[in-house]
């Protein structure tokens, strides 16, 4: 906390063009490319909180880490990495809400997994290298395609036109044997009509955590046909990830060097001295898994046919077709597993009955996701603008498990399938948006959306439980906003937005036989934006009032996913502050800070008993929502000693956050304050179109911290609580070179 004086100096920090100002492309045709995503993006007159990130800003630190880490300095954002260094499985939270309620679209197409509603950035290695722009909306935001946004939206656009042919090589290397290489190329505009772009990427890293390695490959291909005011674009991109699992984190006592606590953990969980020795020798880098092929191996391929047609001077039609194929498994070694847990019979060897066996299993996902999204945009010459749009999408996914090896086979053969279930989900929505300029100072925004979801699953799950659910949901989500221009350089806004969202597949599985409820959210936002000379600032107040919010319990399931439960009444309220500007010709700063309260009105904690005592039930009032820090600050201090050189200090502060919903101080993550250093050098060389050298030194003060975790408690001769955390890397670096010719 002593280091907060440094934060106070800067009010703390984000990039100068992250203050909700729309990035303008210099060419008309790139503006044409933006129209495809305009229907789902917020505007200055929407009355909502949002930030835009340009391709230029993304390139500054795109050295191999996943996209969430490139967005770390955005307002109200907290990121984490299972492997500890930003490569592999990474996550992002906005205003304390987890990825299952952050709506992500790629060129207006839903990207969230239809079943889990989560976002797995690891399935899109190096995708940031193909991104043209990103908009992050906080809160419900505008109507979009896919699952409802309950904490924010990330709207990604890959559409751009390279008029001139080029080739580009990016290579970077750094700590933990991290190595990224990619090659990009474009034909430029051929015959003033055709363009073809390509990217091929490979990223490899050992990870900070022992054995938490990543082997990531991807490609991106795009071909476009451009007319005067219309275009057709076909995108095909795919990612293949093979990551060694590090889903379990480490005991909190090990992370803090608490030997007595670690001894108690080992004793009550019946680990031996060899295991303890391994933990102590590895320390914060410890990984529970040690089977050589304990990996997640998955490929996801996307195909998008994107078009935009100018019907006349006022109307534009943007229809898109899409298809996504996912196929892969994660492999696990299970020691001393019960035959009965796999639907197998006990066996006898001589007179000895064998009830357990060591085995290796694979849990598979095989899914197809396809559909269409569209928008019809009206841009009149008068006071009225608007959009009508929507989408229809279907998901068909198979889940099944196989035993690929067993010490004792019972009646199984290789690849014996011990469970299988299928999920079908259809998601359809239609929305209408209206922007009306009432007078020179007042703009009105209206947005109405109807969304229907049909979801069903049938079969046997991994614990051999029967799944037979079928649910239909219908949602109506109105949104309204007012923007008032106080002066030429200052405006204020108010908005209301309703969000509703269905539970995920995992909510049904984890809470069976109980059936989770759909969530409802009323989001009220209000703020002021202003600019004076070289300075811009924004203050945004928000109150997000939930009914039946699915909050994280602090526990995780056997794939490392957070388990959630409904709470009847809860809210998130706070203020987001941003400022950016020039201190001098050589120095500029940008800063953001979020101060919030995140509360559950009534929460019931149930602690199971594993002895003869009854389970413990605690009724709690006004408790804090898990993983929702009250203070989040970030930003940059930038120094330009010469035109070709930029040196930036990137501090990030996140206050303490609870691992569950009990507001208990012995179940929380400590606050952390981390500083990164970024250096970019772009010498002027006539031989190349661009030559750039980059250096990222992360966590330059070598601070030991944990950004994620989980917890569970039980009764066994008293209450026992097990806390697990995910340590992040100490000081580490990435250095890279970009050459365009």
Distance between the first and last residues' Cα: 48 Å
Question: Level of helix content?
Answer: under 10%
Q: Hey, roughly how much beta strand do the residues contain? A: over 45%
Shape: globular
The fold-level CATH name of the largest domain is Maltoporin, Chain A
Q: How many strands, what sense, and barrel or not for the largest sheet? A: 22 strands, antiparallel, barrel
Rg calc: 26 Å
Which CATH C-level class of the largest domain is it? Answer: Mainly Beta
CATH homologous superfamily classification of the largest domain: TonB-dependent receptor, beta-barrel domain
How many individual domains?
A: 2
By helix and strand content, what is the structural category? mainly beta
The CATH architecture name of the largest domain reads Beta Barrel
The average pLDDT score comes to 91
Poorly predicted runs of 5 or more residues: 1-27
What's the total count of β strands? Answer: 37
Question: Which structural traits does this protein have?
Answer:
37 strands, 22-stranded antiparallel barrel, 2 domains, 741 residues, disordered N terminus, Maltoporin, Chain A, mainly beta
Structure description:
The chain has two domains: 4-249 and 287-740, TonB-dependent receptor, beta-barrel domain (Maltoporin, Chain A); 250-286, no CATH class. It is globular, with a radius of gyration of 26 Å. It is mainly beta and 741 residues long. 8% of the residues lie in helices and 57% in strands.
């Amino acid at each position: 906390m002593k280091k907060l004086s440094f934060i106070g100096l800067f009010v703390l920090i984000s990039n100068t063009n992250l203050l909700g100002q729309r990035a303008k492309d210099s060419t008309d045709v790139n503006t044409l490319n933006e129209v495809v995503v305009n229907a789902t993006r917020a505007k200055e007159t929407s009355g909502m909180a949002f930030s835009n990130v340009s391709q230029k800003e993304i390139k500054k630190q795109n050295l191999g880490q996943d996209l969430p880490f490139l967005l770390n300095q955005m307002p109200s954002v907290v990121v984490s990495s299972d492997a500890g260094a930003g490569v592999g499985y990474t996550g992002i939270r906005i205003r304390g809400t987890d990825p299952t309620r952050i709506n992500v679209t790629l060129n207006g197409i839903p990207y969230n997994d239809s079943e889990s509603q989560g976002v797995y950035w690891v399935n899109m290695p190096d995708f940031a290298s193909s991104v043209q722009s990103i908009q992050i909306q906080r809160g419900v935001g505008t109507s979009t395609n896919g699952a409802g946004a309950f904490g924010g939206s990330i709207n990604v656009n890959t559409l751009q036109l390279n008029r001139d042919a080029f080739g580009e090589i990016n290579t970077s290397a750094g700590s933990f044997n991290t190595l990224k290489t990619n090659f990009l190329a474009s034909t430029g505009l051929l015959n003033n009509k055709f363009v073809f772009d390509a990217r091929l990427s490979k990223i490899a890293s050992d990870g900070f955590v022992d054995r938490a390695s990543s082997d990531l490959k991807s490609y991106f291909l795009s071909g476009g046909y451009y007319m005067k005011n219309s275009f057709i674009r076909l995108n095909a991109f795919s990612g293949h990830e093979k990551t060694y699992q590090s889903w379990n984190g480490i005991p909190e006592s090990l992370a803090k060097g608490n030997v007595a606590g670690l001894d108690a953990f080992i004793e009550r969980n019946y680990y031996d001295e060899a295991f303890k020795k391994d933990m102590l020798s590895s320390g914060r880098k410890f990984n529970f898994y040690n089977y050589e092929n304990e990996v997640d191996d998955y490929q996801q391929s996307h195909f998008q046919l994107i078009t935009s047609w100018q019907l006349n001077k006022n109307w534009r039609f943007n229809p898109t077709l899409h298809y996504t194929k996912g196929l892969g498994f994660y492999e696990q070694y299970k020691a001393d597993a019960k035959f009965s847990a796999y639907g197998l019979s006990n066996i006898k060897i001589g007179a000895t009955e064998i009830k357990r066996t060591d085995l290796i299993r694979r849990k598979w996902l095989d899914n197809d996701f396809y559909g269409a999204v569209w928008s019809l945009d009206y841009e009149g010459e008068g006071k009225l603008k608007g959009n009508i749009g929507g989408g229809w999408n279907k998901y068909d996914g198979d889940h099944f498990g196989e035993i690929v090896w067993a010490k004792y086979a019972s009646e199984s053969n290789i690849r014996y399938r011990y469970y299988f279930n299928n999920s079908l989900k259809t998601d359809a929505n239609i929305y209408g948006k209206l922007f009306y300029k009432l007078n020179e100072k007042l703009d009105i925004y209206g947005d109405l959306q109807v969304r229907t979801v049909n979801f069903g699953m049938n079969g046997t799950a991994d614990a051999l439980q029967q799944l037979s659910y079928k649910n239909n949901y219908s949602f109506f989500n109105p949104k309204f906003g007012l923007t008032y221009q106080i002066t030429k350089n200052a405006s204020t806004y108010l908005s209301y937005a309703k969000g509703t969202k269905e539970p995920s597949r995992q909510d049904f599985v984890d809470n069976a036989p109980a059936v989770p409820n759909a969530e409802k959210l009323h989001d009220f936002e209000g703020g002021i934006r202003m600019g004076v000379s070289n300075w811009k600032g924004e203050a945004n107040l928000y109150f997000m009032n939930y009914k039946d919010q699915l909050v994280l319990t602090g526990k995780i399931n056997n794939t490392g996913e957070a388990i959630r439960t409904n709470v009847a009444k809860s809210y998130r309220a706070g203020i987001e502050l941003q400022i950016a500007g020039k201190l001098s010709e050589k120095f500029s700063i940008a800063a953001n800070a979020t101060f919030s309260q995140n509360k559950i009105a009534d929460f019931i904690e149930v602690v199971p008993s594993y002895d003869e005592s009854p389970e413990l039930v605690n009724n709690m009032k006004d408790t804090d929502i898990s993983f929702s820090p009250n203070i989040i600050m970030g930003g940059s201090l930038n120094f330009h000693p010469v035109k070709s050189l930029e040196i930036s200090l990137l501090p990030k502060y996140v206050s303490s956050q609870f691992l569950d919903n009990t507001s208990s101080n012995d179940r929380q993550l400590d606050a952390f304050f981390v500083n990164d250093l970024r250096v970019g050098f772009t010498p002027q060389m006539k031989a190349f179109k661009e030559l750039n050298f980059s250096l990222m030194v992360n966590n330059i003060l070598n601070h030991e911290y944990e950004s994620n975790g989980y917890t569970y408690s039980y009764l066994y001769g008293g209450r026992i609580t097990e806390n697990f955390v995910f340590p992040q890397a100490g000081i580490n670096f990435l250095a890279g070179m970009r050459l365009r010719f």
